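Key result, reporting period 2: structure in, sequence out.
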């Protein structure tokens, strides 16, 4: 059975509305009987019994329709239920009044029954409508909550899938490099295996998290760069520029590696000279800005063959995490390819 979103709040509203109806009903009935010149004692008994009767019926309505949501074709049932509850309230009221009020003072009772029925019917119908609207609101909130949870699960699964797709690509490159080094440089191949092991161990620890701080991410990135430097030797050099305040900023895990991997791919492939990759990090107005630049040769045919998976996966991750498509931008400037990543804090 579906539970209300806020049971305590609903109970408070039910109690408050029921006793407000009781007080107002008492005042209205007593005022009408006094205006009709009914004996004071009879008027007090009648007003009290009528008010308590309608209050009890109100509680009964709330209890009976606590989770009821009518279909479009079933609204006629509400009026039938309201009529039944109204008839019950009238019968209870008449029975109790006869027990406490002398018979000579009951001439007005039969005459007033149609009016009592109409008033009680309207009150009970209003209570039922309020109760149903409350249930509809709860159902909408429950559906929204389930939808949000479902979408979050889908986003998390997609984010995990995007991260997992990046790792095999890097792993295959590293294994190929290790194979190439085994024969000519076995010591470097062994060191690269140790570095790869440390890198993958750190990657596994990050699998359960969506965010990390910049310090952890940079340490992990430097493990990756150490492996790549074994592959490319003296041709690869990196320059990090950041201040201490940046280190505790939040950043999606494993989001820097594909950007740097992209810079290495288009900066060193088909190039024999030394290549410097610059990584600048700044934090201003709760916005972490990361700028990665690498030189590239405009006449390289390799530049035209990339699938762009790394950058497109980053765009997709940023959209899933922040709902924005403007957080990653790329540009070329003086034969330098520049990737600019912005992470809201």
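The corresponding designed sequence is given below.
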């Amino acid at each position: 059975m579906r539970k209300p979103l806020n049971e305590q709040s609903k109970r408070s509203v039910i109690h408050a509305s029921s006793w407000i109806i009781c007080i107002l009903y008492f005042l209205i009935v007593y005022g009408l009987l006094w205006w009709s010149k009914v004996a004071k004692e009879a008027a007090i008994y009648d007003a009290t019994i009528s008010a308590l009767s309608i209050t009890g019926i109100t509680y009964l309505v709330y209890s009976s329709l606590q989770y009821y949501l009518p279909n479009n074709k079933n609204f006629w049932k509400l009026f039938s239920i309201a009529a039944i509850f109204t008839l019950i309230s009238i019968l209870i009221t008449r029975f109790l009044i006869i027990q406490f009020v002398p018979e000579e003072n009951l001439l007005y009772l039969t005459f007033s029954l149609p009016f009592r029925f109409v008033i009680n019917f309207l009150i009970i119908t209003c209570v039922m409508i309020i109760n149903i609207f409350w249930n509809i609101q709860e159902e909408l909130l429950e559906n929204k909550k389930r939808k949000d949870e479902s979408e979050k699960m889908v986003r998390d699964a997609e984010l995990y899938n995007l991260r997992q797709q990046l790792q095999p690509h890097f792993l295959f490159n590293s294994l190929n490099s290790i194979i190439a080094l085994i024969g000519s440089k076995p010591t470097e191949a062994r060191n690269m295996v140790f570095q790869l092991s440390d890198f993958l161990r750190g990657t596994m620890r990050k699998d359960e998290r969506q965010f990390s701080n910049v310090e952890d991410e940079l340490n992990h990135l430097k493990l990756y760069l150490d492996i790549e430097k074994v592959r490319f030797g003296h041709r690869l050099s990196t320059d990090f520029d950041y201040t201490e305040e940046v280190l505790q900023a939040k950043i999606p895990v494993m989001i820097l590696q594909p950007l740097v991997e992209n810079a290495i791919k288009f900066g060193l492939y088909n190039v024999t000279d030394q290549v410097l990759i610059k990584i600048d990090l700044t934090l201003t107005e709760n916005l972490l800005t990361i700028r990665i630049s690498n030189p590239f040769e405009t006449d390289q045919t390799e530049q035209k063959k990339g699938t762009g998976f790394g950058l497109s996966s980053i765009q997709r991750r940023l959209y899933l995490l922040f709902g924005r498509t403007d957080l990653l931008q790329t540009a070329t400037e003086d034969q330098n390819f520049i990737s600019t990543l912005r992470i809201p804090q």
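Helices lie at 7-35, 40-64, 75-100, 107-184, 186-206, 214-232, 256-268, 309-322. Residues 1-5, 301-307 have pLDDT under 50 and may be disordered. This case is discussed further under Risks and Mitigation.
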